TrEMBL record:
Residues 1-53 form the HTH lysR-type domain. CDD domains: PBP2_GcdR_TrpI_HvrB_AmpR_like (cd08432). This is LysR family transcriptional regulator. Keywords: DNA-binding, Transcription, Transcription regulation. The lineage of its organism: Bacteria, Pseudomonadati, Pseudomonadota, Betaproteobacteria, Burkholderiales. InterPro entries: LysR-type_TF_proteobact-type, LysR_HTH_N, LysR_subst-bd, WH-like_DNA-bd_sf, WH_DNA-bd_sf. It comes from Kinneretia aquatilis. Pfam families: HTH_1, LysR_substrate. The keyword Transcription regulation applies. Belongs to the LysR transcriptional regulatory family. One of its GO terms (molecular function) is sequence-specific DNA binding. It comes from the Bacteria.
Length: 298
């Protein structure tokens, strides 16, 4: 069944073989053996590819439900025996890991040394249960179907610059700062900068000198003095607190729902003590970040 399940998920024998650490021929033989025992095929062969047929889809759906029940049973048995989950597998974006989570993991280890975290950074949204993850830290509108969703924070967009550049710009009058910024190298999204200048009372068509597909890289570029960034406040939090970046006066793009940060996890894990401990710790750390940032309001 393991060979069938792995192949059914990917509809690719080679990928299933790699996942199971078997040869391609071994997986193929196990599937043929299962089909022979059942007396009917489970896949449609299309050239070199395969696809689940109706019987295969029915079996796969039933197998996934049974697998979930088995995992629940194992967790219940573990709890009844007095054992606790010793590790949690989680995923988040590289920017969130680099700019916010990793700098705080030392505190997690000190406070909860018995719960190991296995962190994977991914840009894409994955199926947590199919990929074997306990929870994910996501940014977006949410909620995500089939998952419990806990909102952590809405991250505003603020204007930041390296200290030397910020000091030079601070000489401009508050009323004239927006016009001054418009002539400086700007980093980030053109549409968001256009919104910012509109809020500042300046109608300008903005062409940033550099843009990035990763919020962490945007903040890093601002730290390096490349220009002025319109960045997510949360990702810039530690740099602001440490003095590596300075927030400039001006409008704030308030936390639109697409910029919310969430904790998501399968409903079957809602009572798992280790996961609940991590969720509570994340909420506390996020609240602490929010308090520190509010204390720095311009």
């Amino acid at each position: 069944m393991a060979a069938f399940r792995a192949t059914a998920r990917s509809e690719n024998v080679r990928a299933a073989a790699e996942q199971l650490h078997l040869t391609h021929s071994a997986v193929s033989q196990q599937i043929k053996s299962l089909e022979a025992q059942l007396g009917y095929p489970l896949f449609e062969r299309q050239g070199r590819g395969i696809r689940l047929n109706a019987a295969g889809r029915a079996l796969h759906n039933a197998l996934e439900r049974a697998w979930t029940e088995l995992e629940l049973g194992l967790r219940a048995a573990s709890a009844a025996s007095g054992s606790a989950m010793q590790s949690l597998k989680l995923t988040c974006t590289p920017s969130f890991a680099q700019r916010w989570l990793i700098p705080r993991l030392g505190r997690w280890q000190a406070e909860h040394p018995h719960i190991a975290l296995k962190l994977f950074t991914l840009q894409r949204v994955i199926d947590l249960e199919q990929e074997g993850f306990h929870l994910a830290l996501r940014q977006g509108v949410g909620p995500w179907p089939g998952l419990i969703n806990e909102v952590m924070m809405e991250s505003r967009q603020i204007v930041v610059a390296a200290p030397a550049l910020a000091q030079r710009l601070m000489g401009a009058s508050p009323d004239g700062l927006a016009a001054t910024l418009a002539d400086e190298p700007l980093l980030g999204d053109a549409e968001q900068w256009t919104q910012w200048f509109a809020l500042a009372g300046l109608a300008r068509r903005i062409s940033p000198s550099a843009s990035f597909n990763d919020g962490g890289l945007l903040v890093q570029a601002a730290e390096a003095g490349m220009g002025i960034a319109l960045a997510r406040e949360l990702l810039a939090a530690d740099a602001l607190l440490d003095g590596r970046l300075v927030r400039l006066p001006g409008p704030v793009l308030e936390g639109a729902v697409q910029r919310r940060y969430h904790i998501v996890y399968p409903p079957a894990l809602k009572d798992e003590p280790a996961l609940r401990t991590l969720c509570n710790w994340l909420h506390e750390e996020m609240a602490n970040s929010a308090r520190q940032l509010r204390g720095m309001e311009v």
